[in-house]
Amino acid sequence: MSAIQISRSVDLSKLEAEGFRLRIVHGDAYHLFVEDIPYVTAEGKVALGTLYSSLVTDAAEKTVNPVVDHQCWWVGAAPCDATGRVMTELISNPDPTPKGDQITVDLGFSRKHADKRGYTNYHEKIWTYVREIWHEARELDVSCDPRSGKPVPAVVEGQARAFKYADMATTRAGIGAATSKLLAARLAIVGIGGTGSYILDLIAKTPVAEIHIFDGDEFEIHNAFRAPGAPRREELTDPKKVDWFGDIYDRMHRGIKRHPYHLTDENLAELSGFDFVFVAIDSGKARKAILQRLIAMKVPFIDVGLDIALDQQHALRGICRFTAGTPEMHSHVEEVVSFAEARADELYRNIQVADLNMLNAAMAVGKWKQMRGFYADDMREHHSLYNTATHALTKEDRL
Length: 399
Hints:
alpha/beta
């Protein structure tokens, strides 16, 4: 991720020219700190605090209007008026709040634009909050000023994280605290066919540091109809699946690690040390070996499966399944997961359709996010089935 250039954004450049001390931290998102803001403490003294705002940019690393987020946050004690009374009318959240990228603020402010139109730029937004807090400090010390009296170059710090450009979806939605729960060092996806490729698509949009993809097969023309995206005809030259999908998701996510081979008894030890493993393969024998080894190595996992058949009315009836296993709960796995091999007769069809592959992947990734605390999880089920014919969702094996 390239560092944001202050000169590209008129509003930040104006704050910088006015002498505000700006510090911009970039991780998976951008964070704006305006430091050394004079405020009044509960003891009636003037101290310095820090104003915080999320920072939304476009693809050119230029700020966009902060109309979606009128809030600012504060690092320091609660600001008071000149009499030492806490400015409760300004404070919307009195509790420490994580903002993602290991950043925590002490309390939140809420001051909407006077005419309800929303702030059109960060200069206007920052000045609104600074003016209100600083006004009370000037009542006690007329010489205090959040500006240095001369331009101060902004400090831009941080390091490249999971993404090659900032995650503005998380920033705009203000869910950095929830997204930070998805931080993981190493995650594996075993099998990136129909369902596995959609799992990769979803996981690539999370801040997992490394995503390892295991598959020895080639990406063939039929795969194009049950996978994310739309390849050009001339691109269908049967590349390895790990290379086809690796090239796509390398565009936005760092740390896509390719393993162009199947897992067997000889190399299953490679799954040791992963934070989590998704298993999305058709072979019952291979599935059994992989799940048993993951349980033995105490590696948490989710196994997925589709069972689709054509009925006499030429309509498809299908079931999407996910089964989660953890070091604490895995005895149910061999009871609910079929390890039988597909029939070899000519009537058997390995039917897959893109929407059910996508649904199965969404069910699995949604469960993983529950297990990480991103989503609330009231049921805590470890095995779930969705029936296409009845639209029924069955949840079983609850912790």
